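WARN no homologs supplied; continuing
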Amino acid sequence: MSFWKWIGLDGVPAAREPEGVDRLEHALGGMDPAKARYLACFAYILTRSARADHEVTDGEAREMQRIVVEQGGLPTELAATLIELARKEALRSGGTEDFIVTREFNRLATREQKLALLDALFAVSGVDESILTVEDNEIRRVANELTLEHADYIAVRARHRANLAVMQDKSKNGPKARY
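OK structure emitted
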């Protein structure tokens, strides 16, 4: 007998929908629903590496906005609103929706779009010219959740090698205080 049947349910419960993404999608108004869903997931996931160190800086937020304008084709004002809402939703959920949102993005995106997201995550984390190990680890988790090959992750990461904190000469700038 299955666990679900034993407790009185006949099947496994349906996968939970990411409520935060629904709110982000709603903020995109009259846009094509498929594009709005894609951009809502994209914006939410952009916050993951930025908040890995428990702080989303203004520089990281500006970079996320720039990326959403560039890759999503949104007007600057709408991109700013979307990023601000994504930051709030990620904070509200405490990261509990991270996997669910990334799984949804994985379903919606092409391989090229997934790689572009990975590159964007490194760009956001590297905006201060130092990608912390905790940020790099979060990007690796995203790559896994997007079912990308390790070689894909390494290829994208290599383009941002100069900003990896672990690769920087600590004697020049002094040690980093966090992670």
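DSSP finds ten helices and no strands in the chain.
OK
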